[in-house]
Amino acid sequence: MGSVLSFGILMFAAQTPRTYFTTNPAFLRLKKGRQVTNIRAFVESSCPSLFDKFRPAWWLTGGHLQTLYAVLGDFSKVDQVVYDRTGAHYFTPPASERSLDDETPIVVVLHGLSGGSHESYVRAILAPAISLVNEGGLGYRAVVVNFRGCAGVPLTSPQLYSAGYTDDIRQAVWYISHLYPKAPLLGVGFSLGANLLARYLAQEGENSRLVAGCVLGCPWNLVKNSEALESGWLSRHVYSRAMASNLKRLIQRHVSAIAQFPGSSLGQQTPKVLSVKSMTLVDFDNAITRVAGGSSPPFPFPSAWDYYKWASSDQLLGKVRVPLLSINADDDPIINEVPVDAADNGWVVMVMTRGGGHLGWFEVQGSAHYPRRWVSKPVIEWLKACGENLYADNEKAVPFRDADGWLVGAGNEHLGCREAGSGGKVEGAETEEGMLAGL
Q1: CB of 130 within 8 A of CB of 109?
Q2: pLDDT tens digits along 125-172
Q3: Which H helix or E strand runs over 427?
Q4: Which DSSP letter does residue 426 get?
Q5: Taking the CB of residue 315, how many other CB atoms lie within 10 A of it?
Q6: What sequence ranges are listed for the domain AB hydrolase-1 (predicted)?
Q7: Cα 95 to chain center, whole Å?
Q8: 198 burial type by CB count under 10 A (0-12 exposed, 13-18 middle, 19+ buried)
Q9: Residues carrying an active site annotation
Q10: Contact call for residues 382 and 138 (beta carbons, < 8 A)
Q11: How many CA atoms lie within 13 A of 7 on its CB side?
């Protein structure tokens, strides 16, 4: 009886993702013979997994279970990745283990709210992306951009990161482009990092140095999604407080560094935040992120809600001018509002799966004894198609120059980046003690 019930649940839950194209899809230039194709034909021919059924593991059929498994599951033995650390940038595969051509595509990854290069959802994409072609991988290079204070990155100023501040990403892209000027760069963002990637692509428009992007579990409208997160008892007391708890732990780890800036907003707010036993994500953002989540202007904001309004990526979606694939789950307990109409932007393809939770998408594949992330398949197909087939017009990218050892971009002379020195190898599965993963 149990096996019949399991089969019934599996068949009921299996659904083909809904893929949304606009009525006027953008036309893409391909490398081969400079051919032109529209983005719908490009996706339909390159990403067959998007048009196959997603079958959640029978014991992970709801969004809450999918999300909790992403947080509590043991992923230390799967999708193992080793990085070369250079400041906040984690490169893989390590240079000592493999030599790659300078034109090899590079996957540039932005992690979630309080995560980093160690997260299982990051490694689920990078492991097949960097694996050798004869082993079923893409053979690509990848770089995870760890946010300020995350994954061992030190705080050297009284500024954190946020869902809207894109200058750190902009500088990271300059740096990677400087190291590998011939390589096509492909952006992948998760949750908060997805929102950042969408904003970056919109701000850069046709001048983007990333030739394509993919966003997973993007929150899009931070106002509406935060309202939904705070209004439900379970979402407020479980998810919102869990995310705030992670951020408090992150602040706690950098107390000594923050103490070096006692007159800053971050320095003044930190003791207050750490004295509160329990807070929601909005509470944390109202105390810390709205004042220290980026440079001035536009920070500080009058309230967390003003910050959410400014940082929402859906309002900029119409300005994206490179191929962008977005995948969300319809039962994500953290993300409720998804702009499936894509602001009528022909460069954007929106996908909604039936089930999957927040950055979960777990299904049992073949003879595997543990669930794997379904989303890895379409993302890898997308990266392969974009990295190997798209023609990149680098002449449109905003140029940068050397200014006394700093890379400075045209129109952004107030920004600069330079080599931070090697930090050795890092095992990708080394988690942050005391932090809940997967968020």
Answers
A1: no
A2: 999 999 999 999 999 999 999 999 999 899 999 999 999 999 999 999
A3: strand 422-427
A4: E
A5: 16
A6: 105-336
A7: 24
A8: buried
A9: 191, 332, 358
A10: no
A11: 4
Which residues does 149 contact at the CB level (< 8 Å), separation at least 6?
Answer: 155, 160, 161, 250, 251, 253, 254
Whole-number Å distance between alpha carbons of 37 and 40 = 8
> Which residues, in sequence order, are bridge partners of residue 54?
15
In the chain the domains, ranked by start, together with CATH numbers, are 12-221+317-427 (3.40.50.1820), 225-311 (no CATH)
- Angstrom distance (rounded) from CA 315 to CA 221: 8
Other residues' Cβ atoms within 10 Å of the Cβ of residue 182: 11
In the structure, how many helices (H) and strands (E) does the chain have? Answer: 15, 17
User: And the tokens for 345?
Assistant: 């932007």
Confidence (pTM): 0.93
Q: Report the relative pairing of strands 210-216 and 348-353 from DSSP bridges.
A: unpaired
CA-nearest of 381, 352, 377 to 366 is 377
The crossing angle, in degrees rounded to 10, of helices 167-179 and 192-204 is 70
Among candidates 404, 438, 110, which has minimal Cα distance to 246? 438
Residue type, 419: E
Instruction: Decide: 108 and 190 in contact? Cβ < 8 Å.
Output: no
Q: pLDDT digits over 352-384, tens only?
A: 999 999 999 999 877 666 899 999 999 999 999
The residues near 61 (Cβ < 8 Å, ≥ 6 apart) are 9, 13, 355
Query: Nearest-5° angle of CA 132, CA 211, CA 308?
Result: 110
pLDDT digits (tens, 9 = 90+) for 311-343: 999 999 999 999 999 999 999 999 999 999 876
